[in-house]
């Protein structure tokens, strides 16, 4: 399983997770017909994206593809189903971030984000273009975050699709706008985290933002470390040192050591009250707990940030309960044993672990997981227990 | 020193640090006359801000005031001395973030940021207004990040000062613009971190961004966790437990414990290659190392991120040396011993520790520190050693 082998040899069993928004969802206000619509959409997009990963599509392309499907679906608050600002306009945001088991691959950028977009059919494709065009030779830049309108000119030059205002207008979002209430936390920001067969991990996130937000409000979706994050690092451990315990026992064993370690990859996407995500840097904080804080798993860290009583909830203090601090996070964690040169140690096909948690009524999510026999099961859920 | 005492009783000796930009500064390209200009400006603003803190001004007001002085000084890349975009326009960014030793004070917002500003004389004052107007009753919002132009309308309504394009035009920045090179890392983004007598810690940061950046490029200055961060938390430790070592010794001491701990506050401001700061969430990462990673001090964490060979430098990989990954961070750390109720334990006047590090040629910085006799010394430096 050395990375010197051709890329066509899969190192990992591909896996993925999607989210379609989190908030004050309740059984009493989610009729079966609406539940079925969400469930059908999420299952369809999960299946299509899983198929792409299984047939060799990269994590970045697969995650972005999943989000384009969600952006075209008016059920979700992104792309076509985006909420309106207080001025009755639509301003969309999106981001991508990537990491890889191959520590020697130095991607020119690890993430890119766009905000304030109007009429761009697929904001997530524009974020991806910004990531993949790192320099003047590609008509791009090294900029990580780009706000409209100039980046829309670039989008036209790069051949991205635009749609008129009417295409984005939906009765449901317009009614929410007319109610003149800021918020609507069950708004359906979307995200997807994918692990591909080569050990690349990617996260893609897209949103219309907050209902009746001020024009120009920037949320967590295009903000590094708030609504999204991806990171990889090595943890090396000297398992035994002759000089160390030889001296301790009074023996002279000479100096020797066995250096072994793991490479860890994490990627997460958040949804909920974006301002709280910003104020606690939710996505980066969860990953920092794993990298620096000795959190045994990403699952534990995600719970400590986005689970009940976690960092996001505590950030709202006495204002908890009216939407502030509410939200959820999805993610994938990968551990790979590496040798002294930092190359993956041979073994069975690697696995990624899908994780999620939320501190509010519900979070729309869909993922695949293996049962005891290694068979992959598709899941769609909104509450903690079954609908 | 209980926080039940009136606010007029100082708990801390006020302290502060300013930065005026970091980059490929060299003795050979920094003539004495220019050095003296920077040195004089920084010392003047340091002294004025220190005086404010000593006479009871809050950390937020003092840090913001320091930055307004730097914004009016064409030496620095912010406000009046801002660099130009590729379109020959000026687009400014600023942010503020606060924390406090009083864990029971739940500020409605902990930070606010603005970007893409034109003609606003003091972007930092607009960031502060956004922080201090948390709701509709104040003509504000709970939004954490606001991009122009709508927030400029608010700035007019709130009475902020605007200046025409000519006021912002400087020969030096225009010449840099005409050279058509993107970058200029010794650009002079500014920041200030202040600790006041009540134990409030505030950070204020302001910039014109990157020379010849694309219009709409968002840097690290208005991005939570990238170019700025402030945070406070409690670390409690059970110093002795009767049930624990009583059982160990075979004695029945009953169950008792002494709960003691510290409250820690950190605040940092960064300057340098903003895109690298974004890609490693530099400010939040440094503070996470202290909070979650057991870094003994903020100084160590700032070195691990912004010092030579640190996280920022490593993020540039093979592209290190042409500006990418270059920069520095300033900050203040505070530790307060607290009792079982979380209230500060009486004792001598508390101290904040000023910290900084950088991985490039130099970083303009000014700070106060106590000598052995408790006398406060003013410092201005640009290189590691004296000029």
UniProtKB/TrEMBL annotation, chains A, B:
<feature type="binding site">
    <location>
        <begin position="271"/>
        <end position="274"/>
    </location>
    <ligand>
        <name>substrate</name>
    </ligand>
</feature>
<dbReference type="InterPro" id="IPR000246">
    <property type="entry name" value="Peptidase_T2"/>
</dbReference>
<feature type="active site" description="Nucleophile">
    <location>
        <position position="189"/>
    </location>
</feature>
<protein>
    <submittedName>
        <fullName>Nucleophile aminohydrolase</fullName>
    </submittedName>
</protein>
<dbReference type="GO" id="GO:0016787">
    <property type="term" value="F:hydrolase activity"/>
</dbReference>
<dbReference type="GO" id="GO:0005737">
    <property type="term" value="C:cytoplasm"/>
</dbReference>
<dbReference type="Pfam" id="PF01112">
    <property type="entry name" value="Asparaginase_2"/>
</dbReference>
<dbReference type="InterPro" id="IPR029055">
    <property type="entry name" value="Ntn_hydrolases_N"/>
</dbReference>
<keyword id="KW-0378">Hydrolase</keyword>
<feature type="site" description="Cleavage; by autolysis">
    <location>
        <begin position="188"/>
        <end position="189"/>
    </location>
</feature>
<feature type="binding site">
    <location>
        <begin position="217"/>
        <end position="220"/>
    </location>
    <ligand>
        <name>substrate</name>
    </ligand>
</feature>
């Amino acid at each position: 399983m050395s990375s010197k082998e051709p890329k066509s040899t899969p190192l990992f069993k591909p896996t993925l997770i999607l989210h379609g928004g989190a908030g004050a969802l309740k059984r009493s206000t989610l009729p079966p017909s609406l539940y079925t619509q969400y469930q059908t959409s999420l299952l369809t997009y999960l299946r299509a994206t899983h198929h792409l990963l299984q047939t060799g599509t990269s994590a970045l392309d697969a995650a972005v593809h999943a989000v384009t499907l969600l952006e075209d679906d008016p059920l979700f608050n992104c792309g076509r189903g985006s909420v309106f600002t207080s001025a009755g306009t639509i301003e969309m945001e999106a981001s991508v971030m990537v990491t890889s088991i191959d520590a020697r691959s130095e991607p020119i950028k690890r993430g890119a984000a766009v905000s304030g977009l109007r009429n761009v059919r697929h904001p997530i494709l524009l974020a991806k273009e910004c990531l993949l065009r790192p320099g003047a030779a590609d008509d791009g830049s090294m900029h990580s975050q780009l706000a409209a309108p100039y980046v829309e000119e670039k989008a036209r030059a790069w051949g991205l699709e635009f749609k008129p205002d009417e295409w984005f207008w939906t009765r449901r979002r317009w009614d929410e706008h007319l109610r003149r209430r800021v918020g609507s936390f069950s708004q359906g920001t979307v995200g997807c985290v994918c692990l591909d067969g080569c050990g690349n991990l990617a996260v893609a996130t897209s949103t219309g933002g907050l209902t009746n937000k001020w024009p120009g409000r920037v949320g967590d979706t295009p903000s590094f470390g708030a609504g999204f994050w991806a990171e990889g690092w090595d943890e090396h451990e000297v398992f035994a040192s002759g000089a160390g315990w030889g001296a301790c026992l009074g023996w002279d064993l000479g100096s020797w050591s066995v250096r072994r370690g793991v490479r860890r990859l994490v990627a997460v996407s958040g949804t909920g009250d974006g301002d709280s995500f910003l104020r606690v840097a939710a996505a980066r904080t969860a990953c920092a707990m794993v990298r620096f804080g000795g959190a045994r798993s990403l699952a534990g860290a995600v719970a400590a940030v986005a689970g009940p009583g976690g960092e996001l909830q505590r950030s709202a203090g006495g204002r908890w309960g009216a939407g502030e601090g509410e939200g959820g996070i999805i993610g994938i964690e990968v551990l790979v044993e590496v040798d002294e040169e930092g190359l993956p140690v041979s073994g069975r096909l690697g696995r990624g672990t899908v994780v999620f948690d939320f501190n509010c009524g519900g979070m729309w999510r869909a993922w695949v997981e293996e049962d005891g026999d290694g068979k992959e099961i598709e899941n769609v859920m909104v509450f903690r227990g079954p609908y």
